[in-house]
Amino acid sequence: MLSNSASQIEAKPIDFCRVCLARDLEKILDLGKQPLANSFLKQKDQDEQFFPLDAYLCENCGHVQLGTNVDREGIFRNYLYFSGPNPGLSSHFQKYAADVKQHVPSWQNDLIVEIGSNDGILLKEFQSPQNSILGVDPALNIESVVPTMREFFGSKVAERILREKGRKASVIMANNVLAHTYDLHDTVAGMAELITDDGLVVIEAPWLGDMFETNAYDTIYHEHLSYFSIMALQKLFEQFGLVLVDLEFQPVQGKSFRAFFGKNRKPSDFAQKIVTMEAQRGWNYRQAFAMLAKKIRRSKNILLRKLDDLKKSGESIAGYGAPAKGNTILNYTGAGSYLDALIEGMPSKIGLYAPGSRLPVVAREAVNPDAFVMFAWNYRPQILEKEKDFKGEWIIPNQIESI
Ligand SMILES: [Zn+2]
């Protein structure tokens, strides 16, 4: 599905905390007005809608969320699913499955549910003759290799699964789902209802700490409604009787966490240590975010100065990778005016134009620039290995130190 300029997408401000429902929210970041980061354009002159891209902090519970709600049907209507090589992802899923199986030894006999199951490749790792696996995913344009319910998960869908399957699930996984979730309360209520007393809910999501540690402000785009600290995540789940029993950090796509929640269990000591560390760093107070906002502005100035110098010395520059997150950087910094194109490995993106910057997305062979801005910077080692013959300069767009 491609964006259809004739249909207007609805957007409205959100004035309560999705985790604790408090109404006192503090604006902490403003990245300007931006189009949807995944809405690549078919034509360079196609109309686009822009929405405020700003983040708010709830000082009551430490949750960080977007200030503007873009209608989810609008996002899904405009959602482009890009199949193709995604470095490291399939081995990530195998390790993910092995980890979950170790946590829930009875998986072979039970009901296993994955929310946001996409094409089903993670859930397929759990297939066994004695168990039952079920994906839940609203996207209609994705082929799935496992049985899939085409719904947004919530308490009603949990009840339907209970009715249809006649039992609870011992594993519920939600991989990169909670950040996209509109009604966190209804979703977690559904999880609490559907999970067995000794089962585990497994959540994987980008960690707010990554924004502080690697200046990863490019995880902010309209599809990502929430930016979780462990402290806020724990507060969300404990309202529904779910205890954080284990926590791990994953290097995939920046730093993500994997959190395991269960009923009537002992909380994880390691998770408590992380929560204490987050509180000590002040990630639930506006002052820490004022410093972060400063760092982000500084990285923008460093990037523009660098690109300006290169241009003045007659060098050509292209972007390496056209991930959604790259569009946040391009549209916040205005760096697109220095670039000729974005190169991309996924054939399905080639020939399109990046939202906002209107940069053409081309194949690697189409350009041979003097310098590359690495938008897929979280795959830095793999990219440098693949491009070891490239003799030009690499620029990391969100770096905070001058070169
Ligand atoms: Zn809150």
Report on this structure.
Residues 17-76 form the Methyltransferase putative zinc binding domain. Residues 252-397 form the C-methyltransferase domain. This is Methyltransferase. The chain has 403 residues and is an alpha/beta fold. It folds into 2 domains: 1-284, Rossmann fold, CATH 3.40.50.150; 301-395, Rossmann fold, CATH 3.40.50.720. 28% of the residues lie in helices and 22% in strands. The protein has helices spanning 72-77, 89-103, 155-165, 184-194, 209-214, 230-238, 269-280, 286-312, 324-333, 380-386; strands spanning 11-13, 25-34, 51-58, 64-66, 68-70, 111-115, 132-136, 148-149, 169-175, 195-206, 226-227, 243-250, 256-262, 317-320, 342-343, 361-362, 371-374, 393-395. Helix 10 (380-386) links the parallel strand 17 (371-374) and strand 18 (393-395). The radius of gyration is 21 Å and the shape is globular. Mean pLDDT is 91; it is low at 1-6. Bound molecules: zinc ion.
Protein traits:
single chain, 403 residues, alpha/beta, Rossmann fold, 2 domains, seven-stranded mixed β-sheet, five-stranded parallel β-sheet, globular, disordered N terminus, binds zinc ion
The end-to-end span amounts to: 41 Å
Q: Into which percent range does the helicity of residues fall?
A: 25-40%
Report the strand count.
Answer: 18
Which structural class do the helices and strands define? alpha/beta
Gross morphology is globular
CATH superfamily of the largest domain: Vaccinia Virus protein VP39
User: From the structure provided, what is the oligomeric state, counting identical versus distinct chains?
Assistant: single chain
Count of separate DSSP helical elements: 10
Which sequence of strands runs across the widest sheet?
8-7-6-9-10-13-12
CATH architecture of the largest domain: 3-Layer(aba) Sandwich
Bound molecules: zinc ion
CATH level 3 topology of the largest domain: Rossmann fold
Determine and state the CATH class of the largest domain: Alpha Beta
Order of helices and strands: EEEEEHHEEEHEHEHEHEEHHEHEEEHE
Domain C-methyltransferase: 252-397
InterPro entries: Methyltransf_Zn-bd_dom_put, Methyltransf_Zn-bd_dom_put_sf, MeTrfase_14, SAM-dependent_MTases_sf
Organism: Candidatus Doudnabacteria bacterium RIFCSPHIGHO2_01_FULL_49_9
Domain Methyltransferase putative zinc binding: 17-76
